[in-house]
Amino acid sequence: MDQIHTRALEALQPFVHLANSNSATSPRFTTNLITNATSSPNTYVFAELLETPAIQALRAPDTPDEYKGYLTLLEIFAWGTWQDYQATPNLPPLNETQTLKLRLLSLLTLSTTLKPLTYNSLMSALSITAPLDLESLVTKAIYSSLITARLSPATNPPTVNVTAVAPLRDVKPQSLGPMVSILTQWETRCGDVIGDIEAEIARIRTQSVRRRAEEYERNVLFEKALAGWGAESGEGGKKTAGWQGRDRGGGLGGGNKREFSADDFDDDGYWEHGLEGDMQGLGSRMDVDDGAGSSSRLGAGGLGARHPKRVLGKKS
């Protein structure tokens, strides 16, 4: 779309040079220049031509009436529509090329101001009586890269779906004030939105810092509690180990002991010494306690009653 604007500016330059030349002194020459510029196939913008002194000279009071309408005609081609041309009296007639161009330029304006773009609304605004003529005009605008659109004749009502419009319409000087006002209001709203966003960002950052501080304090408390629990667990482990050692060392519940030598038995299962052996010697050779945990059993007269040892001898 920008390329079509560049081409339109380039196409207008020869007419601008002619308007600025020394020969552009008579109203007839100026009006012919306007007619040729508006009839040229690739000229769609005219603001630069309108600003030339030769064109503005047509506003002079001494300009003949037959030439005064050409300046208004050029303004309509710059920012007006077909309806403006129809509603303005004393304008010069248009040739076929000018008629097509003004309708194409009007279609650009209507595509941005008229919603929805139905066949009936466009035909009424462009003074077209047949739908086929409207479709031919829209097709011409599409292939000239003036608009990006799609025809929908089968819908109810039939419509023209425009998705892009080339920036080829000039700005009317009287509309600059409202445009500045609208842009100022938009700037104010943008500033308010940016202020709200910055305030929200500051609030989120403050909350994030507070959450991090709270999380750090919780971690510190947790580590202190974990360290205290570890110290208490270590002291309890020492006490438990002491009790276990005491229990293993004998204490009140010493384990039973059965000590003997396999050599003390002969082949028939009797002790070597028999009955003649010294009891003291036998006692030194064998120490057998019957019954597991006998030392922990309480007797009638003391801490525990020791069972008598059995003395085994040889068979007679």
Walkthrough of the structure:
- This protein is mainly alpha-helical and 316 residues long.
- It has 3 domains: 2-170, no CATH class; 175-249; 253-316, no CATH class.
- The protein has 11 helices and 4 strands; from the N terminus they run αααααααααββαβαβ.
- The protein has helices at residues 2-20, 27-39, 47-50, 53-56, 65-79, 82-87, 96-113, 119-126, 131-143, 176-249, 279-285, and strands spanning 147-152, 159-165, 258-259, 287-288.
- The longest helix is centred in the C-terminal third of the chain and has 74 residues, at 176-249.
- It is elongated, with a radius of gyration of 58 Å.
What can be said about the biggest beta sheet? 2 strands, antiparallel
Give me the secondary-structure category.
mainly alpha
Q: What is the end-to-end distance?
A: 134 Å
Q: Count of DSSP helices?
A: 11
Approximate strand percentage: 5-15%
| Low-pLDDT residue spans | 245-309, 311-316
Strand arrangement, largest sheet?
1-2
**What oligomeric assembly is this protein in?**
single chain
Any idea what the shape is? Answer: elongated
